[in-house]
Amino acid sequence: MGETMRDSYGKYLAQLGAVRNDIVVLDADVSSSTKSIYFAKAFPDRFFNVGVAEANLADIAGGLATAGLRPVVNAFAIFLALKSTDQIRNVLAYNELPVVLVGAYGGLSDSFDGASHQSLADIAIMRAIPGLEVLVPADADEMKRALDYALDRNGPTYLRLTRNEAPNLSEKFGERSAGLDIRKIRVLRQGSDVTIAATGMCVAMAGRAAESLASQGISAEVLDVTSIKPLDIDSLAISVAKTGHLVTAEEHSVIGGLGSACAEALAERGLPFSMRRVGVADCFTESGPYDRLLAKYGISAEAIARQAASLA
Amino acid sequence: MNLEQRALTETDKVKKSKLLTALACRFRMEILEVLHAKQTGHWGGASSACELVTALYFHRMRIDPAHPEWDDRDRFILSKGHASMLLYTVLAHRGYFSPALLGTFRDIDSSLQGHPCMKKTPGVDMSTGALGHGISVGVGMALAARIHRKDYQTYVMVGEGCLDEGQSWEAIMSAAKFKPEGLTVLVDNNGVQLDGTSDEIMPISPLEDKFQAFGWNVLPKTYDGNNMDEILESFDALDRATSWPKVVVYRTVKGKGVSFMEGKNTWHGAPIDDTSFELAKPELEKAYKRALAEVR
Ligand SMILES: Cc1ncc(C[n+]2csc(CCOP(=O)(O)OP(=O)(O)O)c2C)c(N)n1
């Protein structure tokens, strides 16, 4: 078993704490889950556990940020998106405060806890807030780069993480080149028949889907979209102009996430293209093992390949 | 010297209180005039807190209007952001921007938004408008002072309606845990919210006991927040109180100064019609003249 993304995150945050004393970390009684606990132990004077109070959590971070500190806010993705929305919009975003909002347990990754804990609308909510950037890393390497980027930004950023083991994309596709802006789409695999744009945990699935499509004689281009907002529309449009077909894949409701963002952007470019969205249909999910849950709700390499084949 | 300069420089306490009173009376007139002229904005809660905000900016706070972003400045968060016209009036006359701008309140392209916006108005330390945020943000600002080893003060003004918000109590609980030095909450308890009296809408008493139970340092007396002598007395009491966080509950009158508007939720945010304005104006002028006579 490789390391979970939350562990890589927690350790990296603590590492950053040692070199940057402007970082302060906040959590809402879930630091053992989000792994902000590593930072808490190393830097107790710069860690604030506010208890189960996500609204207060985000606004205290806002106050800290007004005085030049760089707060990193930790909570479950669903509760940040649902219980701190007013604070994120009216205090953090409206005032362009440099706060990093880290949503732990994104998508279905808190699988056994069930629908109350699964975060499938967070991207849609965060995306609609002006000035808030939305990043969904696909592996530990991207998570670190995304966090670095967010900590240097002069505005709020939402970083959506997964609870579980993250694939190591570097093994297969090489590391993201240091010079490549985290907001730019990374082309993981060139292809000519269909474009698969994926984010987060779906990126590795898209890679596997492309392999199986290749064996059927379909050439798929795989795009790794870390930044849902801002969306790198140019790179997306170049690929879709070439293939004429797009499949989006995300661990999120099909409403308002990556699929919606791509459809909106490409439609306005006037490109002729056909499209399918892989994601959770407009329904509530349930408890179960992570892999089986993903599969049941239509998120898998097979589902991506099937949709791509239906278009190409 | 104008009234502002006299209020700022006066050292005799009795005279200072009278000067601040006169200033607050004048601000109240100006607020009513702009709100009437613009036919939009909130009178009731601006009027109830007029003495308090005047005393903060012309007596209490360590600030430099020429450097609104000075790191060591004291902070003020108007959690009841709908009293924006009061804050703007005080900031303008304190020198943060030209009083001529006050007439652009709520206009398109104006720097004076309907509710305070720190990105647009010099001197505004935190944007507010949605109720319930102020104490949380104040906790953050005060904790930042601790981390940076600074001694600035953070004042948060809330209305009792603002305290209906659950977040206020999350923040009150967390402040008792972190005990940030320099955090003081001032409650403008005018007893009336938007829809009616607090007793009708959401009873809040015994407020002091609630703060006490939550672990705050509550000043033992409830002060008259429309009486400058009592406000200055409360500031002295704050200086004597030692443990943090601190809270002062002020009894105030919503719509203060206009007899037929006092204590009425209908004057919370209704546009001020011409007839009411013509009746209200002489009342405020009379109070101002009386206050001026005291400082001749
Ligand atoms: C979150 C939120 N809900 C509702 C409102 C609408 N609103 C504006 S003022 C107010 C009543 C506030 O009462 P209080 O805090 O006592 O203010 P004051 O009487 O001092 O004006 C309400 C409900 C708001 N601004 N924010």
Topology:
The complex is a heterodimer of chains A (312) and B (296).
Chain A: H1 5-19, E1 23-27, H2 31-34, H3 37-42, E2 47-49, H4 54-66, E3 70-76, H5 77-83, H6 85-93, E4 100-104, H7 122-127, E5 133-135, H8 140-152, E6 157-160, H9 169-173, E7 186-189, E8 194-198, H10 202-215, E9 220-224, E10 227-229, H11 233-243, E11 245-253, H12 258-269, E12 274-280, H13 290-296, H14 301-311
Parallel strand pairs in A: 1-2, 1-3, 3-4, 4-6, 5-6, 8-9, 8-11, 11-12
Antiparallel strand pairs in A: 5-10, 7-9
Helix pairs in contact in A: 1-8, 4-6, 10-14, 11-12
Chain B: H1 3-9, H2 13-38, H3 44-48, H4 50-60, E1 75-78, H5 84-94, H6 134-147, E2 154-159, H7 166-178, E3 183-189, H8 198-201, H9 207-213, E4 217-218, E5 223-224, H10 228-240, E6 246-251, H11 274-294
Parallel strand pairs in B: 1-2, 2-3, 3-6, 4-6, 5-6
Helix pairs in contact in B: 1-2, 2-4, 2-5, 2-11, 4-5, 4-10, 6-7
The complex binds thiamine diphosphate.
Thiamine diphosphate is lined by residues 44-45, 48, 80, 82, 129-132, 159-162, 188, 190, 192-194, 254 of chain B.
